[in-house]
Amino acid sequence: MAHPMLLSRSPSFLAPSRRCLLSLPTSSASASASLGASQSRRHLHLLRQSKTLQTNSSPRQQTRLVPSSSSSSSSSSIRPYHSQHHPDPPVHEYTNSQTTILSAALRHIPQHGFTRDALTLGARDAGFLDVSVQLFPRAEFDLILFWLASRRGLLRASVHDGLLEQYAGASVEQKIKVLLMERLRMNVDVRHQWQDALALMSLPSNVPLSLSELHALSDDILNLAGDTSVDTTWYTKRLSVSAIFASAEVVMTREAPGSSLADTEAFVDRRVEDVKALGDKLSGVKQCLGFMGSTAVGVGRSWGLKI
Hints:
- With 307 residues, this protein is mostly helical.
- Helix content is 60%, strand content 0%.
- It contains 13 helices and no strands.
């Protein structure tokens, strides 16, 4: 009677064997129960091995060599360089309702700036109640982030529509100049409001997402320009483009209303020519780290950070 009790506690995956074993003589049932227990132990061992393999193959430990989601279709064959320790950027995604309100609010930025009033008017235009602005926990900063992300999308669309066709034989540096100026011109209608936007972006709680958007823009520009760096210059070039764009934004806000951004374009031309990291590799680890550090400080100061 001991053997049937033992079999009744066997795992469910041994259920078919139990029905056969119950009809066997006592000696045969004893041998079969021993065999079933051995199979059970083997099954558990295989499960542990499977879990160990899954843990060791975590995506966080793999070198990421896949195309960036911000890259355009024209550069889909380029594989941007990432260190396996490269951190994931902060996430800022919006629901359909939030996107609808933000899209409508963009039309009110030239008059009302990046303010709660612009968000409220956008909510009204989209058919929402004024209280819908509470959908945005970061308030005005969400409007800034949406502006930056939507302008990046327009820049990629411009390249898709043939912005760089006449520069097919030009250097990467020349294409970078064209793309930087194209993106800066998208701020012309709001440049009288941009100083306030820069002040909001420089707040400590907003800096991570602001720098994430700036990096995404520089990554887009270099990919669209045809840069194929796969070494440490992948980082230095993006820092260089970020520094040039952040500085040029400040120059643009100081130009007279209605100007053709001639001063801003001249500034971009000089900075692109001066930054050797755009075309040449830096030699030496100390030189590379020093350049990256000084460039990061320059970006922060352009945004008003006290560093």
